[in-house]
Design a protein that fits this description.
It is built from 13 helices and 16 strands. The chain is α/β, with parallel strands linked by helices and about 400 residues long. The chain has three domains: about 70 residues, Winged helix-like DNA-binding domain superfamily/Winged helix DNA-binding domain (Arc Repressor Mutant, subunit A), CATH 1.10.10.10; about 140 residues, Nucleotidyltransferase, domain 5, CATH 3.30.420.40; about 170 residues, ATPase, nucleotide binding domain (Nucleotidyltransferase, domain 5, 2-Layer Sandwich), CATH 3.30.420. It has a five-stranded mixed β-sheet, with helices on both faces. Helix 1 crosses helix 3, helix 6 packs across helix 13 and helix 9 packs across helix 10. The radius of gyration is 22 Å and the shape is globular. The protein starts with a helix and ends in a 6-residue tail after the last helix.
């Protein structure tokens, strides 16, 4: 790369090195990112001026010679920039504020207003924007607001912020990014929520995720994302990740598409909530109520959640066999909240895998790859996964090109 592109790449290398290793002295950054000390100093000065980095008080290490002043991301309560997050779910929107390390500073869930007439065309983006604006006013501390990252399910084209298709919300070819930006008067970035979580894991999660990961999202919408060497794959038209009709080994559930055993028809929150009502476990189709019932000792709720966990594990095995990632991240409510359901997913994946199964982590026995506990994990942010991932839709491009801030 030449000219400005090369400078942007160098600045990104310094910023990501500080993200991974900070607080860190300038002299230690150069060998970590492969740039010359002069290039590191030049880029660090620019990042300090932009407010993305700050110098911490006191030397990084004692000893003879000039003290080494450590640099870190500017996450301080005075002047540290923040990003807003907006996750648009089927029943509600969740608003958030995070700092440059993805730390959640504030969040709120706000149910959508029912469209009139019901059923209608889904929630109104203008109403969502107004609720988000009220949230941002309430939690305004004077810190610079970089913009808004938006995550939602379905087919999303991040290049122009268009929701190509979201069946549950009734949206098709909706210019969501433009609608929200016009209403909020802020920069807005939009992406699919499975890719958003994958980006968050690469930036702020386990180091293995930066090598390769598969993320499987199980909610009202079921989808997936694949990342390698720090880049999340989008595919032509940003259509990658549609696993709604991925076959689940052993499932005999009939899908509306006419086939049997599709993942969406077998394991989505919508299907699970309806089944919980049919079995008389909860009074309304809510996975949250079902998880609460299991936590209070209802064996029927626990049994149904374990049934879903085994179905998710079977689908996870298919993705593991195809992509063989360093780590698989599963976002599914019961397993995020309780390790027992995550263990159920792991066991089912190991049993269904055709590449060895076994109990190993990165490697099984007899040369097999293995689907051990170390490879299937919950998101690093736990229950706050979606509010944080939404903001990462905005932060991700910033860490790839800090000039994006300008």
């Amino acid at each position: 790369m030449a000219g400005d592109s090369r400078a942007a790449a160098n600045a990104a290398a310094v910023l990501r090195t500080v993200l991974a290793h900070g607080p860190v002295a300038r002299s230690a950054i150069a060998p970590l990112c492969g740039l010359s000390p002069a290039a590191v100093s030049r880029q660090a000065n620019g990042l300090l001026r932009s407010g993305l980095l700050r110098e911490l008080p006191g030397p990084a290490a004692s000893g003879a010679g000039r003290p080494r002043i450590p640099l870190d991301l500017h996450t301080g309560p005075v002047g540290g920039p923040v990003a807003a997050g907006l996750h648009i779910g089927v029943p509600a929107a969740t608003f958030s504020l995070v700092d440059l390390r993805g730390t959640l500073l504030a969040r709120r869930t706000s149910p959508h207003q029912a469209p009139t007439p019901t059923p209608g065309p889904g929630p109104d983006p203008a109403d969502i924007a107004d609720r988000l604006a009220a949230f941002l006013r309430e939690f305004d501390t004077g810190r610079p607001l970089l913009g808004v990252g938006v995550a939602l399910g379905g087919w999303v084209r991040p290049g122009d912020g268009t929701v190509v298709r979201h069946e549950a919300l009734g949206w098709r070819d909706r210019p969501l990014g433009a609608e929200l930006a016009e209403r909020l008067r802020l920069p807005v970035s939009v992406d699919n929520h499975a890719r958003a979580v994958a980006h968050a894991e690469i930036l702020f999660g386990r180091p293995e995720a930066r090598r390769s990961l598969v993320h499987l999202f199980i909610g009202n919408v079921v989808d997936a994302a694949f990342g390698i060497e720090g880049t999340v794959h989008q595919g032509p038209g940003a259509a990658a990740g549609d696993v709604a009709h991925l076959p689940v080994p052993g499932s005999r559930t009939v899908c509306p598409c006419g086939r049997v055993g599709c993942l969406q028809a077998t394991a989505s929150d919508t299907v699970l909530g309806a089944e919980a009502v049919r079995r008389g476990i909860v009074p309304e189709p809510s996975v949250n109520l079902l998880v609460d019932a299991a936590a209070t000792g209802d064996p029927r709720a626990d049994r149904l959640l374990r049934e879903r966990a085994r179905a998710v594990g079977g689908a996870a095995a298919v993705l593991l066999d195809v992509f063989n990632p360093a780590v698989m991240v599963v976002t599914e409510l019961s397993s995020v909240l309780h390790d027992g359901y995550l263990d159920e997913i792991r066991a089912a994946a190991a049993a269904a895998s055709r590449t060895g199964g076994g109990s190993g982590g990165a490697g099984g026995t007899n040369g097999s790859v293995g689907v051990g506990p170390a490879r299937i994990v919950s998101p690093h942010a736990g229950p706050a996964v979606l509010p944080g991932a939404a903001a990462t839709v905005l932060l991700g491009p910033l860490f790839r090109d800090p000039s994006h801030l300008n």
